[in-house]
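From the thread on structure requests for the teaching lab: each student submitted one protein with a one-line request. Submission from student K.M.:

"Model oligopeptidase A from Taylorella asinigenitalis 14/45, tokens only."
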Amino acid sequence: MLTNNPLVVGINEFIDYSAVKAEHIEPAIKFLIDENKKFVDELVAAPTPLTWETFIHRLNENSAQLGRAWQVVGHLNSVVNTPEFREAFTKTLPLIVEHSTLMGLNKDLYKHYKALADQDLNPEYASYSKEQKRILYLALQAFKLSGVELEGEQKQKFIEISDKLAQLSQKFSENCLDSVDKWSYYVSDINELKGLPEDVIALCKELAVAEGRPNEWKLVVQIPVYVPVMQYAESEDLREKLYRGFSTIASENGNPEFDNSSNIEQILHLKNELAKVLGFKDYADLQLETRMANDSHEVMNFLDDLAKRSKPFAQRDLDELKSFAKAEFNKESLNPWDIAYYSEKLRKSKYSYSDAELKPYLPVDSVFSGWKKIISELFGVTLKDIQLPKWNKDIVSFEVTDTKSGELLGHLYVDLYARNGKQSGAWVNIERNRMKTENVFSTPIVYLTCNFIPPVDGKPSQLTHDDVITLFHESGHALHALLTKVDEVDASAFSAVEWDAIELPSQMMENFVWEEDVMNLLSSHIATKEKLPPELFEKIYKAKNFQSGMFNVRQLEFALFDMTLHIGMKDLKIADVMRILKEVREKVAVVIPPDWARFPHNFSHIFAGGYAAGYYSYKWAEVLSSDAYSLFEENRLADGSTLNPIIGLRYRERILEVGGSKPAEEFFRDFRGRDPQPDAMLRHQGLI
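Reply posted by the TA:
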């Protein structure tokens, strides 16, 4: 047994994050891989068929510790990325990839699964639940997609491709992170920052002071600085400088040291090779094997239809913006770095409010207090502050229990603020899944991560409405993991829900932030403690679909670009990738970035995440989430609130609790009473 290693603890112990060091990673992972290998070898040596308890449960119990340790390592690599930690992670990653690949290729393991699923060999099969039969179906499918039926050269090729893809994806992420962290621009004249919110200016000052330059302000292309500069900076030169920095992240036009061009080419090539080895016509075909959507033709038709509906609205949005900029500011033409700035001016002109006016009503403490109350009222759960070991002083953690029974459901870590060494964006990961067997009962531990502007000068962070939407979005994912009643880990939400339905809970939660009573619960003015005034909420609500056409075509541009890259066996060079993006934009977009911009080089969703041939999932799931929310709208309380606990409980029981134990179309139908319809999505976005 490996001792004194904080990554190797009992499944029901908490990880001491403050104790995890780079030198713990390789010994822990090597030890746990060896233990898992030995166990699997002994397990598969037994005669078939084993029982559910002696095979599935024993396998999951033994694999849980390794899975958890690697989740912790991967999470820390994303949120406290030091050179030492990265080196240890990169060194250990091939070991995990190799082990995972070999498990997927393990014919003896496959044989036992097949025996359990064979009615002739396994007399217990007839008594299995739908959930158990689904687990076996998904497991056998996963084995086939993991190359278990490959032999000889093809098998070796699959192993090599899997290993190389993991390394390339990791390098892609590292280049993005390093490119962002290394980019900076120092301002010595505060007039250059005219228009920026005070908290952003204070943050830039704090960043410069930390670098030993107290008489300057340090600007970066991390989102908490970049977005406000684009929206508010009066200096067009400053906006262009940051736009150029952000738009050339990890490219030859930014910092060539971190250029992702070669990584993109190799990733696309190897994904084609992977599909070919497994017998699929292309990578899109491979990915869609496990999705709600039937094939790439259906996905492309879905996206093309939305694009045709959305583009006229997007063009109308842009025409309105151009007319406004010309009439009010004598601006004859708009560059891409002007769009957000004049859009903010137009929004303020049309609706008489800006984010700067709203933010004082949304200090983090108030938002968190209301957020906990909303989750409690809606889903019958309690989030209790609890001190857990953490990786940064700003982390908050909660114990999640059922309000009525007091049953422990899980634990939640929330990491809200941007900082160096932390991956950009917002996401949810799972440290530990719910699992109930004859020997083990563990509840979920979940990470919710954002990148909001941190507290500055002792003042609490103040959120924008978009920040609150992000918080609620990620909360939907977190609740999907936390509120599960699925005891079989192989049927958990993040293991078994189809990828194009996984965004349903997250996007559904966003809708509540457009309700006045919800914003009242979240708001408390930082100075006066006043709730959000009704007239300010009315302005926010009226602006809900402000430039929704432009936003929609941007998302459709990403999705169409992604699918086009992965349809067909194309050997693409970076010039081809940029050409495809240009062709998609000519078809869909109304704002065309400059030729020197390099969006693909920072498109981590498809080159370093799980969204390759899957970015369409956001729009696909939006149909589901909007339709799901419409049941709350149809059952408002007497005061007009959508916080209806009866519908909330129905949603909890029929979607959140069931995880991936049923196909998505089935659990959606259980909740909504019918198949999904697109009307609610189109209505919510002002497209009908």
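TA comment: The chain has a mean pLDDT of 97. DSSP finds 27 helices and nine strands in the chain.
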